[in-house]
Amino acid sequence: MVTQEVEYKPLSVREILKEMKDLSSLMIDLAYSAFLYNHKKLAEEVMRLEERVDYLGYLLGIQAALAARDREDAEQVSGILKVATAVDKISDAAADIANLVLLNISIHPSIHSAFKKTEEILGRVKVREESVLAGKTLEDLMLETRMGVDIIAIRREKIWILNPGKKVKLRSGDILIARGSVESIELLDKLSSGKVKELPEVTK
Amino acid sequence: MVTQEVEYKPLSVREILKEMKDLSSLMIDLAYSAFLYNHKKLAEEVMRLEERVDYLGYLLGIQAALAARDREDAEQVSGILKVATAVDKISDAAADIANLVLLNISIHPSIHSAFKKTEEILGRVKVREESVLAGKTLEDLMLETRMGVDIIAIRREKIWILNPGKKVKLRSGDILIARGSVESIELLDKLSSGKVKELPEVTK
User: Quick one: which of A188, A15, A20 has its CA closest to A88?
Assistant: First the structure.
């Protein structure tokens, strides 16, 4: 999980690699969803993630160079830098897909609607001050049990929290990236904007 | 899910895009795991997946070109082809990472061992004729419940079955890509090679 601290404490090579991988996987998911549903806001999140991946690539370069003391080290450093280059290529490719959406090049509506009925989608919602979600932890909210929604990432201004743990408390202004059916994402949108004030009952 | 039929019936643009996306996500996961654990067989699977993604990109080009009847169609086709190019870039990048492993450029053992203790890993095992797994469906086996192992893909010669459903019956010769703890993947390896003949009890 990426938490606020990441901005202030140095990350190990291992942590950087893991975060780059997780972010690039998330970017691909988001970029695809943005393209399939012509979802501009989602496409913009991909662009934001690309900045983060670029920054991590830069950090990795510094860490890796500092770590190289001898010839054997240097070979490993070179391997790590090649991985960083590959991840950068992945995040560029995801940004290319997102950019199509921002350029208004989207997919044929027939393909779009074929997706819409059957599959889980990714959504992006913003938690408003008046939302019932604000100030509650994911544990309190039990969104998965209540409405089949999985929060896969939270963006808090420039910080990304990936696969947030149940202790994470949602704040006004948080951007939630969630996976669920079309209906459940629509409900999440209403809950986060404050249009709907009551969470569905816990069934099961 | 990708089933055997995919080789024989034409895929829609939508199906091709979805499969390309799923395969490229899988490639990234596998490539990272291969790099972190210096796992050559896993790296080779990435190379095989790249061939499949290339083939799908070729199919997509044909389908998309056939679909273009007028100017508006053509714009959408061009969008789809750009997505295909991006996915191809992603799969190339994953192959770049896998190739480092095949070139014996791996990661520092200290990073490797830091991963090994705490996290889930991806493993690759082959089902032998004498294995208790051969001839059973995933539903029969309940590997997730029994030992915390999730089969995320099966390769049957050249066919990939992604996120296999519970009705899928394992066959001798199947390559399983599985996610789990180091211990559970080691057990899966013994079960699939036939060294261990009994599945662990269902607990819970």
Answer: A20
Low-confidence ranges of chain A (pLDDT < 70): 1-10, 106-119, 203-204
Is B25 close to A21, i.e. CB distance below 8 A? no
**Each residue of A129-170: pLDDT tens digit?**
999 999 999 999 999 999 999 999 999 998 899 889 999 999
Q: Tell how far CA B128 is from the center of its chain.
A: 19
DSSP classification of residue A93: H
Domains of chain A from N-terminus onward: 4-102 (1.20.58.220), 120-193 (3.30.70.1450)
User: Coil, strand, or helix at residue B66?
Assistant: helix
CB-based contact, A100 to chain B, within 8 Å: yes
The DSSP letter of residue B135 is T
Q: Residue A124 belongs to what H/E stretch? A: strand A121-126
What percent of chain B clears pLDDT 70, i.e. is strictly above it?
87
Chain A residues in contact with B22 by the CB 8 A cut-off are none
Q: Collapsing DSSP states into helix, strand and coil, what is residue A69? A: coil
Q: Read off the pTM.
A: 0.78
Q: Which residues does B104 contact at the CB level (< 8 Å), separation at least 6? A: none
- Beta strand ranges found along chain B (DSSP E): 121-126, 150-156, 159-162, 175-180
Interface test mutation site (partner B, options A78, A83, A119, max chain B beta carbons within 10 A):
A83
Give the residue among B31, B57, B55 at the shortest CA–CA distance from B45.
B31
User: From its phi and psi, is residue A125 left (phi > 0), alpha (psi between -120 and 50) or beta?
Assistant: beta
